[in-house]
Specification:
Strand order of the largest sheet: 1-2
Low-confidence stretches: 1-21, 44-54, 60-65, 94-114, 168-179
Structural class: mainly alpha
Strand content: 5-15%
Radius of gyration: 41 Å
Order of helices and strands: EEHEEHEEHHHHHHHHHHHH
Number of helices: 14
Mean pLDDT: 77
């Protein structure tokens, strides 16, 4: 082979076949022993590297990186929670979420706590008082609910007859008589009215489906019209029996306008959520995942709108029943409506028609106000509830709305 001007001559070394096999093996053994002596002598051997600790990088407050040695300790696997522990944690979380949603609804906050063990004492039946938990009321049958409603209507009717006697109270049930204010019948009326109202709130919060089913029919077990089939004459008689003052009627109409304005906001929010709902078949797997995430988000928003609507209706009920109504009118509405539970918005709609007010459909329109302004107006009703206390619960508490 020629490289440049140099000539490299490679000569193959021939193997001498005449050497015995043992001589060749001894030569190889001597050479291998010399190789081990030269490279793996004890003095030249390097120590075996010890196991190095795990190095973990820890970020500091200055966003620099430093290292430190840590010992990795195996973390024991936590024991699974028992069924009772999971239930307790779920109840605590639900209570916190409910309290966050119900901030401002001062009047009914205690009754609307998401606590199935909250109790209610019923004294209307003969014998010892009955203590019912939220769960008991939620599981109440139609027969038991109807029996209790009939008992409260009968007892409240007796109290009203005692309090509205000419020698005890004036013709208009406003509790202006000193004799009526000191009457034992008034204490019983207050107690039973509170129990009946709390019973209904327990049921509507704990099991709204059953509550709507129960109040849709007669509660005396007799055949007759359903609640939705009651005509205007029935509501007109009920409205006449309430004997609202002019100041009460003005507050009821103001509450009605703000209530339907708030419902209109929630209806528009629900409509916007439904518009964003994706339709049609997805072409790729990536598109399927994207649509699924979008549907989950929209479903949560719809759930929040429904919860806000439910809360608004409870605040509306609290405002007129415990703020605008007097104690006598609270009891009168239960007694005169029996064996039905009247649909209160329909009573107010009839009063609005008599006073020339706008319809519910018209009030739910924006009417030149955006959603923020409608929500701000309703927030004043929420603040109004804080003015309803045990000291003025029997009286009409006027609604004062700041001018915008």
């Amino acid at each position: 082979m020629q490289v440049g001007n140099s000539v490299l001559s490679l000569q193959a070394q021939s193997v001498d076949d005449s050497l015995p096999i043992q001589s060749s093996w001894d030569s190889f053994a001597d050479d291998f022993e010399s190789f081990l002596e030269a490279n793996f002598h004890e003095d030249k051997m390097q120590p075996v590297a010890q196991e190095q600790p795990i190095i973990r990088r820890v970020p500091t407050a200055k966003r620099s990186v430093r290292t430190r040695k840590v010992d990795v300790v195996p973390v024991p696997r936590p024991r699974p929670l028992t069924r009772e522990q999971r239930k307790r944690l779920h109840n605590r979380a639900s209570q916190r979420q409910w309290r966050e949603r119900q901030k401002g609804n001062v009047d009914l906050t205690d009754l609307m706590r998401d606590d199935t063990q909250q109790t209610l004492t019923l004294t209307v039946m003969e014998g010892p008082p009955q203590v019912k938990t939220r769960q008991d009321v939620s599981n109440m049958s139609l027969d038991e609910f109807a029996m209790l409603t009939a008992a409260y209507a009968r007892k409240l009717g007796d109290c009203l007859a005692e309090l509205t006697k000419p020698a005890v109270a004036p013709s208009r049930p406003a509790l202006k008589s000193r004799a009526a204010a000191n009457s034992p019948a008034l204490d019983q009326l207050r107690q039973w009215t509170q129990e009946c109202s709390s019973l209904r709130v327990f049921l509507v919060v704990g099991n709204p489906k059953n509550f709507m089913a129960y109040i849709s029919d007669r509660l005396d077990g007799k055949l007759g019209l359903r609640t939705c089939e009651l005509g205007t004459e029935w509501y007109h008689d009920l409205l006449a029996s309430m004997q609202f003052t002019e100041a009460q009627q003005q507050d009821l109409m103001l509450l009605r306008r703000l209530f339907y304005g708030k419902l209109g906001v929630l209806a528009r929010e629900r409509k916007e959520c439904l518009k964003r709902m994706p339709f049609g078949a997805a072409a790729t797997g990536h598109e399927v995942n994207g649509r699924l995430a979008e549907v989950v988000t929209i479903a949560q928003e719809l759930h929040d709108v429904t919860a806000a609507e439910f809360q608004t209706k409870l605040q509306f009920t609290s405002a007129y029943r415990r703020g605008i109504y007097t104690l006598i009118q609270q009891a009168m509405s239960m007694v005169k409506a029996f064996p039905y539970v009247a649909e209160k918005p329909q009573i107010f709609d009839m009063l609005a028609a008599e006073r020339g007010e706008l319809s519910a459909r018209e009030l739910m329109q924006p009417a030149g106000l955006d959603n923020i302004e409608h929500n701000a107006k309703w927030q004043q009703i929420v603040q109004y509830l804080a003015t309803v206390t045990a000291d003025n619960l029997d009286l009409h508490v006027p609604i004062v709305i700041a001018s915008s």
